[in-house]
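assembly run, all chains below
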Amino acid sequence: MLGFVLFLLVACQPQPREVTPSLAPFDRELPTHFPAFPSTPDNPMTQQGVELGRRLFYDKRLSGNNQISCASCHEPAQAFSDGVAFTTVGVSGRPLDRNSPALLNLAWMNNGLFWEGGATNLESQAFAPLTNLDEMAQDLVELETELKADPTYVQAFKRVFDGEIKVAYVARALAQFQRSLLSYQSAYDAYVEKKQALSSAQRRGLALFTTHCSRCHQGALFTDNLFHNNGLDDDFSDDSKEGVYQGRFRITRNPVDLGKYKTPTLRNIALTAPYMHDGRFPTLEAVLKHYATGVKASPSTDAVLTQNRSVRLSESEQQDIIHFLNSLTDYSFTTNPRLQNPF
Amino acid sequence: MKSSIITLLAAAALLSSCSQENEVSPAVTSGSADLTFDAVVNDADFTLSKDFTISGTTYNFSTLRYWVSNLKLVKANGEAYSVPNSYYLLEETKEISVQDGSFKYPARKREQIQLTNIPVGEYTSLEFSVGVDSVYNNNLSLQAGELSQLNGMTNISWMWHTSYIFSSLQGSVKQNSTTKTLKVETGLNTNFKSVKLTLPQALKVSSAAASAVISTNVAAITEGVDVMTTPSVGAAQGDVMSKVASNFSSKVFSVKSVN
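ok done. output:
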């Protein structure tokens, strides 16, 4: 009888269910100040799926020349970022047009990926770095062939997805691993949980941060998941490279979105220099100085940054905020053995 | 006992939650039908690498590809049969360079869709869409029918904005001594369009072979578009793309014959 019900369930789904009972669901106990862990019914997370995703994330066979992996630009020690403005480690050696973002707490990033939010989910996003000639330059047919030659992968895909190796499953496994990149054990979290004190400079910085920065960098995730023009530029007439200099406008084609980019999380921000979508600021000092004195006004610049001048901070206030931002560094995340290179 | 009643109720609930189309049981009496999408340029047969003059402009095509999805056969009383997993890539193309020329997609011609297990009946109209519906278009790792990342219909210039390429028409256009490369593509959820075609006579699905031929008039794809000014249509040419998508919805397809 139960089997019959399951059959009906399957018959109604647009997509066969893929979690087999032998797989263990992925489970993490998060602090109470975190939002609930979102479910992903199209790609349910399992421990085995996350583990397969980790292997793929660090596997250089994912690139066309078998020289680079996802981790080449997303290194755990730098909170899965790479420390340079525009990396040149891609297969072509040409510099990218975007700063590699830190990868953490992505499970909640459900309002578009990439700096301008054009990718709808991690499963779809993965195909861009995999195929882009300046990134991993992989032929997806070749990728399937290469992975099928490795019995470890054949077995793992069979177990996790109950099927043979397909690039769609590669994308799903990578997405599962990326959603497992959870950072919630910083000094700030210990402070919120009343387990540890912050220094007086950090507490002053937290108060200033709450007043001046938390409208966009809000909540436990330190992002509103939205897009803002934070006044880096005031001229968006350069429409070359499919609008890469025009911010979210290239996605929406709406002028109000010119120069807008996604609010990044500030967790582990001390580890992810340089800053902004193009890595133009080498230090947090330069970032704070921008908000204090460098914001350029244009019709799409966030009004909070231009009208109220609310971020006009003294140099000592800027320093206090940076002290606070340092409390968001989470070494238990960057050194978590479950997130490291398995090879 | 109690648990099996609950199970039964659950089964009933699940059954009723299925959409109406799915309720059409795979009848014992089912048949097959062939649908042919015959590409034409107005009254001429569509041929690659041949000059066609359309409204004073000389076109020479190298690629025609488009997704036909969510195919439904509708009876006179409105009862519809939705073909499951109906995502078909129709195409007539020379070898395609994928990823800026690094990889090749082979030359291919495909204009027929073979439908099997269609409930017996007389179908008086056809409905389908050009492109991929948002459920699958928003998540490239979900796959049904012929949807795949391996056929070059998700190319890199689109990767930063998640979408399949719904349709692609490529080649060259020429006016006087000026020649430009033509690359007209549609994609994105807003350009997912449906097509309804009334059949001149019913498509009779039975034990005997049934077939219908649909004309795909390539000349209508760019109707109303100044291809010499805008020979390349992509995400940055939103208005023109929308025009092309509505051409697919209302002008490109017509029924040629039903047998």
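Chain B has a mean pLDDT of 88.

The longest strand of chain B covers residues 57-75.

not gonna interpret more than that til we talk
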